[in-house]
Design goal:
By secondary structure, this protein is of the alpha+beta class. The chain is built from 12 helices and 40 strands. The strands form 7 sheets. Strands 11, 12, 13, 14, 15, 16, 17, 18, 19 and 22 form a 10-stranded mixed beta sheet that branches. Strands 25, 28, 29, 31, 36, 37, 38 and 40 form an 8-stranded antiparallel beta sheet that branches. Strands 26-27-30-39-32-33-34-35 form an 8-stranded antiparallel beta sheet, with helices on one face.
Length: about 725
């Protein structure tokens, strides 16, 4: 079997731009994708699939790979027969080769021996032009393209080897797979590939998102490896410029404690580590600094006037360090003149957009027109000069809200319009000399131009065509595989493989107690204390993975210790009952007056009018099923008791929400209408992974039903549990 490192094992029906249909749902195409990040014509390429028998009996299946005329199968045969036990999964692999570059569709058909169950998936594959592979000692020296203006790209440095969860959205979208694979951002060779691809297509600088980790003392960073471990140690570090965008949006952690912290901790760090670096972007001998939320400094520094004074002191400190000042740019993607006027009072020199949010899932042309309208409106306000940003796409980390993408050919149109606009700006303004691209590598959020599986070098070729002084000069777009380099995903691949093992473990079928057809899931946490998963004891295979969580003695067997850790249950349609719902559990805490602390949650940004959650608000048990954003919080009448086990339940019958404490109703709330489904995971023990809004205590016997339990049923469950607790 071919190497399957690019087989992304998400339990989804649709992958890789793969549009999967399952009729009926006994067979599932878990994944269907290329094994390499990017394919070339006239070169062997592996394509893999994972097929699941999703029913409770064994099945004899046949999988058939269907290829277009331009693509040849080299091994094995197109049809593969297999027998799968209940909920077992088979991994299949074929080797193919395309005779010519271009896009084509590859199809997978799966049928049962009786032809009673079928599944199908289609994946669109781009084959880049053929290139004879060679073995080189290292990446060839970049040949920078001369451009008509400075072109920068926002660079999102989240892709570190110990954070595989950052790639989660690519499990649903393997068409986004970078040409570097699921790379480790801290690798200097990765930085050299990025530099080579950038400068050879006209991108002359990166704007790295820069994260501080803690305020009021010596500077500590998060996600700093892209600059310090990769860029600074890379061979081609001098071939392009870089700058930073201060991501100060996390209150109390990523900003500054006061002016002294800004001027004597943060600024000296920037000057010594970045501004004085020969590769740092300086225009008119002024370092260029981007700030994500300038207005947050108003609270940090005690008022607008204090921010303006602090910015002046920063510029003076830069002059003392040998520069002619400091350019400060503030992020804003709206068209409210009052915001820009406030920026001006703060002393911000220019506005810029990190990205453009465009509503209502626009077409490519609508996305182009809307961006240009925003850009022109910003200029027409005539408040603060701007540096133009153009956006390629957007999806959000969970495909929430508006989703859109501008293909490379249309992106070229947008670039030409933006270039023409910048030519109308006053020549003394930065906006006439530089333009920003959104984004180089925001894979999870859905905007990126770095070479990747779906469009190859298409976006960078568009940049080259529009801004290059001699864009038609011949050049070769190399991939790591072309010269025998890579892979760069070793560490992340290992973690993903482990995650896949855990995914199989959590789907184990286990039962406890009497069967209940309305029970969606039952998490009892009764596994071994060191088990990395929590099984679903309803028999429905909806177990979850432990994220930094532990177990302790519970009301029955073990319980989940809620001190910041949690259990994550991957999305399933079963987790989205629409007409009725009940949640029942046992909790124990010694911490009174908890507020906004959650132990079961499926309400997240991008879907705050959907899902459900349960926790403690203002010291009282709280049950929420939103109808509109963050609406319909039902709190119990009394505070949550401490120092003992307490039974909590919330029910919804399609009209009324009710909350119960120790078997007694303690509140009701009218809420007519269905529960809005979503595609989020379920978090047990916390609001979200590593979130501050976690319940402080123990959690046990969490049950989720697709109907509203009666008051008698809840009282009986409480009495049974209370009896065990006494024993």
């Amino acid at each position: 079997m071919q190497n399957t490192r690019w087989l992304f094992l998400a339990t989804v029906l649709c992958c890789a731009g793969a549009h999967a249909m399952v009729t009926p749902p006994e067979i599932r195409v878990v994944s269907f994708a290329l094994e390499k990040p990017v394919a070339r014509a006239k070169r062997a390429t592996g394509i893999s699939a994972a097929i699941e028998n999703a029913c409770e009996s064994a099945m004899q299946l046949r999988a058939t790979l269907v290829l277009p005329a331009t693509v040849r199968l080299t091994s094995p045969k197109a049809e593969i027969d297999m027998k799968l036990e209940p909920h077992d999964e088979a991994k299949l692999s074929w080797t193919i080769e395309s005779d010519a570059p271009g896009e084509c569709d590859l199809k997978l058909e799966v049928t049962s021996a009786e032809n009673t169950a079928r599944a199908a998936a289609t994946v669109r594959v781009l084959f880049l032009p053929a290139l004879e592979p060679q073995k080189l000692d290292y990446i060839p020296e970049p040949d920078p393209l001369k451009t008509s203006m400075l072109i920068g790209a926002h660079n999102c440095p989240l892709w570190e080897s110990d954070k595989p969860e950052m790639w989660a959205n690519l499990k649903k979208h393997p068409e986004r797979t970078p040409a570097l694979g699921f790379y480790s951002q801290e690798n200097p060779e990765v930085a050299d590939w990025e530099t080579k691809w950038a400068v050879e297509h006209g991108v002359s600088f990166f704007v790295y998102c820069w994260y501080r980790d803690g305020q009021g003392g010596p500077v500590k960073q998060r996600f700093g490896s892209a600059i310090h471990d990769a860029l600074f140690k890379s061979k081609f570090a001098s071939k392009m410029k870089f700058t930073i965008m201060w991501e100060n949006q996390t209150r109390g952690k990523a900003g500054v404690a006061n002016e002294d912290d800004l001027l004597n901790n943060l600024l000296p760090f920037w000057i010594d580590n970045y501004f004085k670096n020969p590769s740092y972007l300086k225009i008119d001998n002024k370092p260029v600094l981007f700030i994500y939320v300038p207005t947050f400094l108003i609270q940090d520094l005690g008022g607008e006037a204090n921010v303006a004074k602090a910015f002046d002191k920063m510029r003076e400190a830069c002059r003392k360090a040998g520069f002619d000042g400091l350019y400060i740019l503030g992020e804003y993607r709206g068209q409210d003149a009052k915001v820009l006027q406030q920026f001006k009072r703060l002393g911000v020199d220019y506005s810029f957009a990190y990205c453009w949010h465009i509503q209502n899932n626009p077409t490519p042309q609508q996305a182009i027109d809307t961006q240009m309208r925003y850009i022109r409106k910003t200029q027409d306000l005539n408040v603060l000069p701007q540096v133009v940003t153009v956006s390629q796409a957007w999806s959000g980390w969970r495909d929430e809200g508006s989703i859109w993408k501008i293909p490379p050919t249309d992106f070229e149109t947008l670039l030409r319009q933006a270039k023409d606009f910048t030519a109308t700006l006053p020549k003394e303004q930065l906006g006439s000399r530089m333009l920003l691209l959104d984004n180089w590598n925001e894979w999870g959020e859905g905007h990126y131009i770095l070479p990747y599986r779906e469009y190859g070098f298409g976006y960078l070729d568009a940049v080259r065509k529009v801004f290059g002084e001699n864009p038609k000069e011949p050049h070769v777009d190399l991939l790591p595989e072309d010269i025998g380099r890579g892979p760069y995903d070793t560490a992340i691949r290992t973690l993903l493989e482990k995650a896949d093992e855990n995914r199989k473990l959590v789907r184990k079928r286990v039962t406890k107690g009497k069967p209940d057809p309305d029970l969606i899931a039952w998490w009892a946490f009764d596994e071994n204390k060191d088990a990395p998963f929590a099984l679903d004891y309803s028999g429905n295979r909806l177990g979850g993975k432990l994220e930094g969580a532990q177990r302790a003695a519970g009301i029955d067997g073990n319980a989940l210790v809620c001190n910041g850790g949690c259990v994550i249950v991957e999305n399933s349609s079963a987790l989205s009952p629409t007409t009725a719902l009940s949640i029942a559990c046992w909790v124990k805490t010694d911490t009174a007056a908890q507020s906004n602390n959650w132990f079961l949650n499926r309400v997240f940004a991008g879907g705050t009018s959907s899902g459900y959650r349960m926790g403690v608000v203002e010291g009282k048990p709280c049950f929420e099923i939103p109808l509109t954003d963050w609406s319909h919080h039902l709190k119990a009448n009394e505070p949550l008791p401490t120092g003992r086990w307490v039974h909590l339940a919330g029910t919804f019958d399609g009209k009324t929400m009710r909350i119960y404490v120790d078997g007694k109703e303690q509140g009701s709330l009218e809420r007519p209408g269905e529960i809005k489904p979503n595609a989020f995971h379920l978090c047990i023990g916390n609001f979200e992974v590593k979130h501050a809004a976690f319940f402080n205590g123990l959690l046990d016997e969490v049950k989720l039903y697709r109907r509203a339990l009666t008051a008698d049923e809840i009282r009986k469950e409480y009495e049974d549990g209370a009896e065990r607790a006494v024993k």
